[in-house]
Amino acid sequence: MSRRRGLIALALAAFVWTLLLHAPAATLYGWFASKNSTVQLLGIEGSLSEGSLAGVTGNGSTILRDLHWQLQPWWLLLARASFHIESGAPIAIRGSVGISPFARHVSNAHISASLKSLLGSAGIAYLPIDGLIDGDIDSLTIQHGFPSAATAILQLRGLNWSLAKPPMQLGDFRADIRNDNDAIVANIQSTSGPIEAQGLAHLNADGSYDSDIRLKAKPDADPSAQNLLHSLGQPDAQGYYHARSHGQLAGATPQKAGAPPASH
To answer: Which of 99, 139, 180, 215 sits in a 20 to 30 Å window from 25, CA-based?
Structure first.
């Protein structure tokens, strides 16, 4: 009798799972999507096993467009729904995305995007810079809507200062991204162009960010590039100007002084 019940339970589980795999993805999204989430999926077609959507929006801007997915079923053994995805411009990404009960994961991914689009998805599109980002993301973990861990190498090409007319070309840069305790740290350095740059940027667990980039115009730099650096204030003893910034990602709650870190 117990063996028969076990077979019945197994058959029922297989039946339910088959229904989920082939159920319309839009219906499943309507059932399980959080009503309080700032991220919305638009134009959903297909099923859980394979489908597409017209766009992903968050923080008042479009994050992804023309996204296609295909389920990687073996990850279900580890309680994670994992998909191979591909999306189109303005943020083109190709790789694996996983969904577990407490986090979202990106791995083995290649990204190509405009800097302005990425800044917009983070809620800081007002920064007057643009360029093209291309790179590889080994791993990225998102908890409570914000990155909590990341390992990646990104190339920023054709960085320009958009307040100038025409936009002022500042060169090409590289960012090596790693984890450091509860923060994500980007080691930034210039690779070509009129400005020498080096420094660090931090994204902290509470959604706050800060950066301090040392900048120096090369001897053959255009006078407009030198004037831009002069607007940052006085250089340090080594002749470097410091571009410092700090703030809070849109939607993040600042952590009060003396409060313990938020648990994940």
So the answer is: 139
